[in-house]
């Protein structure tokens, strides 16, 4: 994927010069330009807003421009090879797509929505020239949609029903290793933290069909000295359509626990925002050992860091033996929109690259899950932070790292070995945290924590 | 704010739950996976654990065969935690199977096994020196049983012959022979000429030797000389994968087996080697345009045609030939627990020798579970099947005499109490805690 953005800096340089046409300010009518005219048109358009630059885009001095060196950094020599068969003109168009997308992001940042709108029209035209079924074309399509939404319908939120979201989540879970990595790694830390404890309580901040728990329940059942008494508290959004997915999941897990002779009790806590959860709702017993499991939840509170502090304070007050934290490892929280956009483009290109390599009949549903996320990020209603920043937040709120050990690493390696895609995935250990990535670009990071004795 | 709470429901209220939440979205039904739970009795000590492990391994194998990646991965995750490679004998057994399943599942994804995924990505089996192998083989009745029974009955059969030609198809690289030569040397009559021909099969199955058959042969010749026996040693390179066809061919071409003339005794000694010859479940080869007949059948017919004085067939008593992975896994699990169980009685925990022993076991397990087709060479058949084959090929069972039984019993006394001897009709069976381990059968042309 990223390799399709290759270093063909001369590809657009060969165009003959045309007289620049006056740019239409309201480009609601789709006008078809041929590519050489288009690039010249776009470039000349942008020079109006920037320092004077030559006509040739390779030397455009634009504040947002992706210079050839950084494009180079995106090129991965080992990525799947079918991109190599694309024709020059398609690669050409891909590069232009990136350029124009960045222009559009820049316009959004400056508040020039009419220009942004015009650029979106052009993006649709450019998109028609690339294969949007796979590869970069597909990702570009999603970003263009997201930009479209951002520009034309900024208040509309891209939320499916809770049920739909569950389905997409489920397929994302099945199709690629990211969520499984999150679950396996967290479960390993929890299992090890519970060693020697006979009364344990897991608090899951996003129960979501409880996909994480059967394996842990089974492993606890077969502990050498017998299983502990297990309580599971599952937090999830309130149900609006008469179903009670929390309860259904709880019953299913209870059934499983019984079948493997683990004494088990479940409690569901419905909360639309995780910082609405209060400690009295969790009913933690002082005699039990608590594990708090927080997978892809804390980033939802990034709009207001004090919300995160509140949740972490709550967690701290529960005196857990272990807190497992998994989040995307990227900065989709920059103040400048174009920075955020660029980062997202890189991040999700990598992720889609990895998805391409996965097998599975319903993979397209997993892709929609990611597509929704792209939309949310571009519309600035979802933010992500890097592992380094999460570590700072945890530290600030009185937590010490618990190093994920060799067992966790071994489990993650095993996950990537079996049924896995051509070895593109990689797991790395860094300061006790594990990161899963594609071709050495980490995408998701797992870490474990315990509260400091003094806060 | 809503709370739902589930106190453990009374058993009679449990029903199976629908696997789709919203029946209207048929195209997008959630396949909520049912964890393949199983009836576990409360831990009954080691047997309870072994049952659980077996069931998990079976579920995992099913998941792999059904391409259910997620379930396979989850079960492997559990197994990784309950079957450490340095645990008790059940855990180490399960660990061997776990590795094998990972190897098999890795092939599904066209991904090499990542370092870190299993301890020792490639099972490195030890290359034994002669001394090491001798010592190794002596530690346990596993091979000694077959050696003792075979040698005793061979001695009986070759009485009166002045030339003894032994054809040795053995997994243990002629470890049986020195004792046999010794026994022959102690006969009251004058020393015979002994010819020893080995197939020198080149496949790399454990236990592996660190010297060539030529070198081995020289040592044997020297040893025989020290006992006043003239030993002629010959290697005919051949492979079990084609039923030793070239071996038999060479025997005939070089006229190494003259007709049964009362002077030369022909002994065919098969010790745990014949199960490497492909049988009917591997695409049957048709030889010479005859009806579909396996290489195993062909081989037995061929040795019958040599008109031997006696054939001894010793092998492990289990059935690894099923084409169904789960059946094979069950069969292998319910047999290979024995070597892991016995090893505690003769090799200390953490010793190098134990590592070698278990590495060889892991090699076998991986071969049975992760390989298919011609690569899967561990094709054990139970005694009943071999008996049938031998009868069909024109042999009848010979009796093991009282002497043979006595010798075996004496040998077993040197080892742990769990080992036992059973007579099944004409055959002898080595047992461990009452379970069949190795059988020994003796045959003469009918």
TrEMBL record, chain A:
Keyword annotations of the record: Gibberellin signaling pathway, Nucleus, Transcription, Transcription regulation, Ubl conjugation
Protein name, per record: DELLA protein
Task: Give the family, as the similarity comment puts it.
Answer: Belongs to the GRAS family. DELLA subfamily.
Q: Which InterPro entries match?
A: TF_DELLA_N (IPR021914), TF_GRAS (IPR005202)
| BP GO terms, sorted | gibberellic acid mediated signaling pathway
Q: What does this protein do?
A: Transcriptional regulator that acts as a repressor of the gibberellin (GA) signaling pathway. Probably acts by participating in large multiprotein complexes that repress transcription of GA-inducible genes.
- Is the keyword Ubl conjugation in the record? yes
Region named SAW:
379-450
Span of the annotated motif LXXLL motif: 298-302
Taxonomic lineage of the native organism = Eukaryota, Viridiplantae, Streptophyta, Embryophyta, Tracheophyta
């Amino acid at each position: 994927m990223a390799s399709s953005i290759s270093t063909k800096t001369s590809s657009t340089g060969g165009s003959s010069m045309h007289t620049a046409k006056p740019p239409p300010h309201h480009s609601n009518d789709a006008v078809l330009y041929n590519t050489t005219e288009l690039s010249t048109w776009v470039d000349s358009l942008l020079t109006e807003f920037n320092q004077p630059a030559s006509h040739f885009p390779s030397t455009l001095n634009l504040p947002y421009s992706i210079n050839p060196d950084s494009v180079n950094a995106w090129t991965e020599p080992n990525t799947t090879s079918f991109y190599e068969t694309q024709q020059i003109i398609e690669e050409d168009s891909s590069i232009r797509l990136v350029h124009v997308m960045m222009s559009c992001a820049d316009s959004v940042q400056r508040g020039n929505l009419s220009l942004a709108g015009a650029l979106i029209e052009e993006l649709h035209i450019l998109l028609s020239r690339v294969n949007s079924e796979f590869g970069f074309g597909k990702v570009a399509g999603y970003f263009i949609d997201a930009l479209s939404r951002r520009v034309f319908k900024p208040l509309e939120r891209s939320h499916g029903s809770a049920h739909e979201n569950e389905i997409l989540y489920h397929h994302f879970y099945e199709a690629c290793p990211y969520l499984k990595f999150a679950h396996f790694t967290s479960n390993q830390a929890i299992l090890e933290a519970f060693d020697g404890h006979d009364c344990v309580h897991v608090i899951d901040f996003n129960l979501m069909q409880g996909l994480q728990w059967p394996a842990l329940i089974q492993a606890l059942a077969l502990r050498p000295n017998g299983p502990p008494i297990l309580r599971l508290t599952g937090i999830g959004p309130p149900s609006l359509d008469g179903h009670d997915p929390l309860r259904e999941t709880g019953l299913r897990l209870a059934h499983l626990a019984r079948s493997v002779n683990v004494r088990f009790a479940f409690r569901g806590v419905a909360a639309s925002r995780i910082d609405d959860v209060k400690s009295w709702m969790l009913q933690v017993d002082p005699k039990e050992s608590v594990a708090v499991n927080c997978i892809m939840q804390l980033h939802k509170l990034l709009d207001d860091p004090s919300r995160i502090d509140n949740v972490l304070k709550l967690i701290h007050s529960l005196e857990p033996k272990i807190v497992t934290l998994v989040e995307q490892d990227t900065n989709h929280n920059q103040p400048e929109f174009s920075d955020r956009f660029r980062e997202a483009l890189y991040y999700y290109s990598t992720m889609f690259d990895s998805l391409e390599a996965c097998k599975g009949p319903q993979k397209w549903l997993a892709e929609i899950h990611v597509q929704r996320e792209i939309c949310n990020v571009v519309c600035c209603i979802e933010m992500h932070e890097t592992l380094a920043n999460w570590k700072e937040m945890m530290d600030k709120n009185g937590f010490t790292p618990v190093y994920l050990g060799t067992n966790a690493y071994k489990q993650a390696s095993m996950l990537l070995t079996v049924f896995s895609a051509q070895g593109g995935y990689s797991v790395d250990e860094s300061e006790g945290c594990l990161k899963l990535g594609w071709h050495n670009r980490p995408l998701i990071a797992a870490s474990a924590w315990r509260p400091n004795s003094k806060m | 704010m809503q709370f739902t709470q589930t106190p453990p429901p009374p058993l009679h209220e449990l029903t199976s739950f629908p696997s789709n939440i919203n029946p209207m979205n048929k195209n997008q039904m959630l396949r909520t996976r049912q964890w393949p739970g199983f009836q576990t009795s409360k831990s009954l000590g080691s047997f309870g654990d072994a049952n659980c492990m077996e069931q998990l391994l079976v579920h995992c194998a099913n998941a792999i065969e059904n391409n259910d990646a997620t379930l396979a991965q989850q079960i492997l995750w559990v197994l990784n935690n309950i079957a450490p490679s340095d645990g008790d004998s059940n855990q180490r057994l399960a660990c061997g199977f776990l590795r094998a399943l990972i190897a098999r599942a890795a092939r599904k994804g066209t991904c090499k096994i990542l370092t870190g995924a299993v301890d020792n990505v490639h099972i490195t089996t030890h290359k034994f020196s002669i001394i090491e192998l001798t010592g190794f083989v002596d530690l346990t009745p596993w091979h000694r049983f077959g050696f003792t029974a075979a040698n005793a009955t061979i001695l009986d059969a070759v009485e009166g012959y002045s030339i003894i030609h032994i054809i040795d198809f053995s997994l243990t690289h002629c470890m049986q022979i020195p004792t046999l030569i010794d026994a022959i040397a102690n006969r009251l009559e004058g020393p015979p000429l002994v010819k020893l021909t080995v197939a020198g099969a080149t496949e790399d199955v454990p236990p592996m030797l660190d010297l060539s058959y030529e070198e081995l042969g020289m040592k044997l010749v020297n040893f025989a000389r020290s006992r006043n026996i003239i030993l002629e040693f010959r290697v005919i390179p051949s492979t079990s994968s084609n039923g030793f066809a070239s071996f038999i061919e060479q025997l005939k071409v070089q006229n190494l087996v003259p007709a049964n003339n009362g002077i030369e005794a022909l002994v065919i000694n098969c010790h745990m080697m014949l199960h490497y010859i492909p049988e009917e479940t591997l695409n049957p080869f048709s030889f010479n345009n005859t009806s579909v007949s396996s290489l195993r059948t062909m081989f037995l017919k061929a040795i019958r045609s040599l008109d031997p004085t006696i054939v001894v067939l010793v092998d492990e008593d289990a059935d690894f030939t099923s084409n169904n992975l789960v059946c094979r896994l069950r069969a292998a699990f319910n047999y290979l627990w024995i070597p892991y169980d016995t090893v505690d009685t003769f090799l200390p925990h953490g010793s190098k020798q134990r590592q070698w022993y278990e590495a060889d076991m892991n090699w076998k397990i991986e071969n049975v579970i992760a390989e298919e087709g011609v690569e899967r060479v561990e094709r054990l058949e139970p005694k009943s099947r071999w008996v049938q084959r031998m009868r069909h090929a024109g042999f009848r069972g010979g009796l093991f005499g009282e002497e043979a039984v006595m010798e075996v019993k004496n040998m077993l006394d040197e080892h742990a109490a769990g080992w036992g001897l059973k007579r099944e009709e004409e055959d002898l069976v080595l047992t461990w805690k009452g379970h069949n381990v190795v059988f020994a059968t003796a045959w003469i042309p009918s």
